[in-house]
Amino acid sequence: GMPYAQPPLGDLRFKAPQPPLPWEGIRSAKEFGSICYQKDFESQTKTTGSEDCLFLNVYTPELKPQNPLPVMFFIHGGGFYSGSGNDDMYGPEFLVRQGVILVTINYRLEVLGFLCLDTEEVPGNAGLKDQ
Known about the structure:
Layout lengths: L1 E2 L34 E2 L7 E2 L6 E5 L11 E4 L18 H5 L3 E5 L4 H5 L11 H5 L1
Parallel strand pairs: 5-6
Antiparallel strand pairs: 1-4, 2-3, 4-6
């Protein structure tokens, strides 16, 4: 996964996403970033994920295509309660075989993404702002 924002930790926990910190050189994005903190869908008693979860996944048919390719930006479902853009649920194979670049996103869920106290500390809807 590629970070699209700074980790929403500490003072950034309930705030709008901030630009990611720069890095030098080539950053490997062959592994998924963490999914956002959520209850395990099957057990409903365990939790999984991390608060450091603002990552994109980009799937391409080839690295240097001959012609421009269409891009599909997919936002996973789950009622703002569960899910992720990682390919365990929404594999990219079909779209990539059709010559489409697929981009998926992890965004904050549940209380970390959608608590709104209408204050400076917790202005609300951080999960929508992640998108």
